[in-house]
Structure formats: C-alpha cells, structure tokens
Amino acid sequence: MLGALDAVGQAGPVPADVGTDGIFEAPVIGEAPAALLPINSCVLAALFEEDGETRVVLTRRSTDLRTHQGQVSFPGGRIDEGEDATAAALREAFEAVS
C-alpha cells in the first residue's frame, strides 16, 4: 500500500500542522457566529490491498438524513463528549455499516 501511495506522490512525512491526535490545527480568524463554529468530527479512512491494488472503503449517506443526503463519503461523524477521535471514527463506521 505504501508503494501505491508513493507512486502517486502521496507518501511522506505527516504535515507539521497535524497534531499528535491526527487532527489538523486550523487557524482561527476573528469570531464566527455559533452556526459556523467548527464541530469536532472525524472519519475513518479504511485502506486495504486487493489484487495488488489499494482500495478505500466509502459509504453512501442515507437519503433520510437532514444534510448531505445520498452523498458518498468516508464513514465518520461527530465526536461525542468524552470520546476521542479514534473511538468516534470506529463507532461511526460501525453505525454506517450496521
């Protein structure tokens, strides 16, 4: 898999603005209205190799959701209070495929 990423120029060191928890530290510019404040969320980027090719797991969001209906996405969602990003990504992925 690393060979496939390297072949397309995607292998290499983690960018400096990614924290030890894997979360980008976005700059804050001014004050935003409450509706525009960031929501702590995460995704699970599940990569695997099959027949010598790197594959990625994606889901199609339900058409019954309030937002982003029918979109193809990584499994993921909001981080619940008291939960870390890894636990949230795994929980959300499980919910998406259950």
Structural account:
With 98 residues, the chain is α+β, with helices and mostly antiparallel strands. It has helices at residues 2-7, 85-97; strands at residues 41-43, 47-50, 53-56, 59-60, 72-73, 76-78. The strands form 3 sheets. Strands 1-6 form a two-stranded antiparallel sheet. Strands 2-3 form a two-stranded antiparallel sheet. It has a two-stranded antiparallel sheet with strand order 4-5. A hairpin with a 2-residue loop joins strand 2 (47-50) and strand 3. The mean pLDDT is 75.
Strand content: 15-25%
Mean pLDDT: 75
Subunit organisation of the chains: single chain
The H-and-E topology, N to C, reads as HEEEEEEH
End-to-end CA span: 27 Å
Question: Can you lay out the helices and strands and say which pair or pack?
Answer:
Layout: H1 2-7, E1 41-43, E2 47-50, E3 53-56, E4 59-60, E5 72-73, E6 76-78, H2 85-97
Antiparallel strand pairs: 1-6, 2-3, 4-5
Keywords:
alpha+beta, 98 residues, two-stranded antiparallel ribbon
Structure, briefly:
Helices cover 19% and strands 18% of the residues. The protein has 98 residues and is of the alpha+beta class. The strands form 3 sheets. The chain has a two-stranded antiparallel ribbon. A two-stranded antiparallel sheet has the order 2-3. Strands 4-5 form a two-stranded antiparallel sheet.
